[in-house]
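Dear colleague,

Thank you for sharing your sequence with our group. We've completed the structure prediction you requested, and as agreed, I am returning the results in plain text so they can be pasted directly into your records. Please verify that the sequence below matches your submission; if there's any discrepancy, let me know and we will rerun it promptly.
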Amino acid sequence: MAGNNVAFALGLVQKAGKTASGDVAVRGALKSGKVKVLVLAQDAAPNSKKEIYFLAEMAGVQVIELLTRNELGYAIGKGPRIAVANTDANFANMLLKK
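Please find the predicted structure tokens below.
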């Protein structure tokens, strides 16, 4: 299943230290231009989704909306997260293939 593959890939990205997770950290990373691909929780609040999509579009970052907040947090070994940003180009390619 694609969700399990993305969760596995996110775990690797987190172990490599190439993530920004959570609302505030992701917004900051998007504004700084470091994000290569963004995974957004399917069950994030509509207003949060709207703002994250806007920031991602402005930064030219592709968004994958696939897992729930709990699944995203679990994948990176943290609590529930609305978004996880990947800051590494090689891992971005791996996530986009999933």
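Summary note from our side: The helical segments are 2-15, 23-32, 46-59, 69-75, 89-97.

Kind regards,
the structure core
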